Amino acid sequence: MSDDGKPRIRFAEEADTAVIARIHMASRSATMPYLPPQKRDHEQVTRWARDVLLKRCRTWVAVRDAEIVGYAALDGDLLEHLYLRPDVRRQGIGTLLLDEVRRHSPDGVSLHVFQQNTDARAFYERHGFTVVDTNDGDRNMENLPDLTLRWIPNSAG
């Protein structure tokens, strides 16, 4: 059954966690080279995805040609994660995931992004997110300055 290369979004399942872990690790190292080297191996990140991510967050995966190419995780109205496989960036898949998250967030969505992550900041700003707070890094594991962005439905008119 071919889905002609068009991505679709579905809820993540436990069977997806190894791929989610691979995407998480590959995306972070490809898009955020300023982060400290990853201390956790694939098995540990897979365990985290299964035991923490899928239990605490509503998590969706983007599937194209039967392969998972990205995921997004929402904890309440906080977008905890939105990662894509590095080779599928800038193809509209992040937008599809973000649209799914927003559909499930009638009161709006907040997220944290590293100040250095200019690509992500531009992506979210294009989608109507605005900066509501800045932080010197004392609230994230990496101790890097970050921003809180928020999107509120219909705020863009």
How would you describe what is shown here?
The chain has 157 residues and is α+β, with helices and mostly antiparallel strands. It has a single domain (8-151), classed as Aminopeptidase (3-Layer(aba) Sandwich), CATH 3.40.630. Helix content is 32%, strand content 29%. It contains four helices and seven strands. It has helices at 17-31, 42-56, 93-103, 118-126, and strands spanning 8-11, 58-64, 67-75, 78-84, 109-114, 130-135, 146-151. Strands 1-2-3-4-5-7-6 form a seven-stranded mixed beta sheet, sandwiched between helices. β2 and β3 (67-75) form a beta hairpin. α1 (17-31) crosses α2 (42-56). The radius of gyration is 15 Å and the shape is globular. The N and C termini lie far apart (40 Å).
The amount of beta strand, in percent, is 25-35%
Summarize the main sheet: 7 strands, mixed
Poorly predicted runs are none
The CATH architecture can be given as 3-Layer(aba) Sandwich
CATH-level-4 superfamily name: Gcn5-related N-acetyltransferase (GNAT)
Overall number of structural domains: 1
First-last Cα distance: 40 Å
Q: SSE order in H/E notation?
A: EHHEEEHEHEE
InterPro entries: Acyl_CoA_acyltransferase, Bact_Acetyltransf, GNAT_dom
GO molecular function, one term: acyltransferase activity
Keywords: Acyltransferase, Transferase
Pfam families: Acetyltransf_7
